[in-house]
Queue: 2 jobs
Job 1
Amino acid sequence: MTEESSTKELIREAAVDLFAAKGFKGASVRDIARRVGIKESSLYNHYKGKAAILESILEYQLEGINRAMLSREEMDAFAAGESDPVKLWLRGVAFYSSRLPRLTGKINRIIHNEMYLDEKCRRFFVDHILERQIDLTVILLGDLVDRGMIRECPLVQTAERYVFMLHGLAQISTIYEIDLKRDGDIQNRIVEHMASFIEGLT
Amino acid sequence: MTEESSTKELIREAAVDLFAAKGFKGASVRDIARRVGIKESSLYNHYKGKAAILESILEYQLEGINRAMLSREEMDAFAAGESDPVKLWLRGVAFYSSRLPRLTGKINRIIHNEMYLDEKCRRFFVDHILERQIDLTVILLGDLVDRGMIRECPLVQTAERYVFMLHGLAQISTIYEIDLKRDGDIQNRIVEHMASFIEGLT
DNA sequence: GTCTATAATCTGATAGAC
DNA sequence: GTCTATCAGATTATAGAC
């Protein structure tokens, strides 16, 4: 249940690496098979074709996100002992992030990469990343308002602005990850941006 | 000077369309040549290869951005007759946008698309889009503060948040452009977000 | 500057033996 | 489920006639 490590699993993992690094078009079935240590023809015993591997990756990602999602009870329990909205927010984000599978970041990069070219990736991005994050943020901000921890504000617009900000930060984070240079303290900057965003709502 | 329409120009224009629609890898030299109405081999009389076409597109984009840029004098003249920071901001954005070449949006999409795969596109995005927009926004916000039109705030952090927000909005704008469905009033939403962002700084 | 012809390579995918 | 062998087509790019 934790980590199968079957050939099918290994293929998917290799494909995640290669799709993220070279793009869906740029990574060939040969590349993927070579990395797994099998021949191309063997790969077709596990997946119908190249497109099917990408679909499998998307399904895997959806499961991972769904499993990491905090339940209503968990969220309430989380909020119980904390009176500082900024600390509460940051702790919540850190906890959620820690529950995401290892490959989540790389797969998000693939989705982001193919979003404009592949309809399934585009759908996934809109439905399971963008809108879901906005919906969740609306709920969380609403809770903070109800608890009197931040002032009233237009929830949807504020949530959109927050999610877009995070999205931009994630993007440059990925870019600095690729080039390594001038990475500086990008992770700290993300946290600072999140903190000052919530701070600005108090 | 205005629009050459030479074969070289036509090739670049066709390439912009195809790279934006199918990606750099997905659009073949054959595709580009066919759209122009010449044979592939003829294309190599104008560009050294496929990569050279993309480079030419980036150079074209850089020129367009540089030409559209408002000078210090233009910015001051713009600010002279307006006392409402929101109106001033929106008018400035609209004016700058109106000076951008026709292909700018499509080329930005290409850059965004290849950003993670191609180093030149990644460099262009960081240097000429992201950092430039942030630098400009810092200046503009600083001006507004100096004029007493908005309150003091951490300029860089605020500018980053603004640029990232716009970036996210541009992204979903592109997505809705592709799928057409549920486009709604995305352009209005962008303007609303810009307005409420500046409004929140007063 | 355009064309025809062609090279050399890579692509995703299949057939069939073991 | 793995392998060898192979296919049919697309890819970028070049050579050389006009």
Job 2
Amino acid sequence: MFRGINNLNIDMKGRLAIPSKYRGAVISESASQIIVTIDHTDKCLLVYPMADWLLVEKQLNSLNNMNRRARNVQRLLLGHAAECELDSQGRILVPAPLRNFAGLKKKLVLVGQLNKFELWDAEQWIIQRDSWIVEAQEDDFDNDEALAQVSI
Amino acid sequence: MFRGINNLNIDMKGRLAIPSKYRGAVISESASQIIVTIDHTDKCLLVYPMADWLLVEKQLNSLNNMNRRARNVQRLLLGHAAECELDSQGRILVPAPLRNFAGLKKKLVLVGQLNKFELWDAEQWIIQRDSWIVEAQEDDFDNDEALAQVSI
DNA sequence: ACTTAAGTGGGGATTAGTGGGGGAAAGTGG
DNA sequence: CCACTTTCCCCCACTAATCCCCACTTAAGT
């Protein structure tokens, strides 16, 4: 299970070092195979170990694709899914089209989300995060059934 | 159950000594494993023994993440959750990104909140606390069903 | 006042992260 | 089918962060 935030750099060749604390899990669980795709709501990338991705893919595949929204989600997620492999130094090569989509410059953040990571341009991440915090301050979630039940 | 306020210092390397009165509980209950994450409304950190964190994580993980607000709360809490371990001196290393988020300088306060602690920069804490007191003076909680029932 | 425990600070070894060169492989065009 | 270009992968070197250990200071209890 992946948690936590990591500041890292992508080099000019598009290589991204996966933090060593996560490598063991990826290697043993998914034989170093990683899927990188785009997020369907934000300008960030999603990074899945292959085993976790397959579960997502199965769900997407089972959607009724006569439904317009389902088709569009399939296009976004399946359509951008790139297979990557950890190299001998524990790095993956993030394909150029995906780097462009997320506006990745040099400084990035890799954000653990249990079954996957989100990958953001560092600057964008800060902007978004602060806006989520402001939103949470102004909203006590009374109108949201599920969230109102959560106790932290 | 953690209660009370403690003044403590974080050193230049980002190390924080957990007061010894709390260590026993953390060691026996959670094998010295601690999770530090951010608060979703204030610029402070939350410190959970692992066992308590897992309960929170389970709730967050079960939220439907096609819901925008749920996704954003997951991003904030799960996304910043750093696994830390008590070292041989009973200290944890607070990751740099989290120190920056909460604006931690040298002097901190660690505030017991039963299942977790809050960690504030000492100066910020004083300012916030005073503002909560003013707020409470001006508001008699008549509009809040749950709070109106509380008798202290 | 002495003894023990808790908190604080720092040196040094080790590991992780970063960046660049060269060679292999794949893709492109004549 | 061959030559040329580009992409990508492996290896090495350098830098920065983290961990482990030891020592000193401060506080507490007998």
